[in-house]
What does this fold into?
Amino acid sequence: MDTGETSRVSAPGYFPGWHPFFRTSARFNVKPEDEIGPQLRAMGIAPEDVRTVILTHLHTDHAGGLHHFPSSEILVSGREHRGARGFAGKVKGYLPHRWPDWFAPTEIAFASRALGPFAESYSVTMAGDVIIVPTPGHTRGHVSVIVQMDNLSYFLAGDAAYSEAQLLEKRSDGVSPSARASVATIHRISQYAASTPCVFLPTHDPEAAERLLRRQITTPAAPSAVEILDAPGLNIPAI
It folds into this structure.
């Protein structure tokens, strides 16, 4: 899931200099050996043997390593892919001109099959133990992946929240195109985690690796009826 960043971000001119975010706020230190390809090989996994890659969204720090997976099926939200393309995508902070020439992702075919508070879902595996759910907010087409194993749900949240603390506080990250959608998604995740033993694993939380190692369950308080009614945008469409 997701492909991390590329070491090419350190090259002069990789980011569009006209974009204020990349000009003033984006700083990365990624060495070639830090990329996902070499990291997988160090674990005995050849990138070419990876059949499916799921992208939570198309920001460069999640899609910069796409070039390692030319033989894989790439799953991404159709709304995310459409919104990230072209000059309009660049304005929103995507780097579509850096995607590999062969990049032609498969749009996730969400079905009206509820999973707890998520009205739609998509099962990646025949066993139904790897499931994609829409989690819009950080981007309009953001998705998360739930892996069900050993009576636990491992909630791979991408940037739906930056940390477990943000989830527990039920607050937006402050940079979402829609704070309403972000808070609505956080309420959905909180409802799911309150009803299902769940290890919450957002990408940028430095404590996520330890929670994964310990299989530490995140248990937010279930939102009250008042919270649900007051939550901005909780009834907005999922995708």
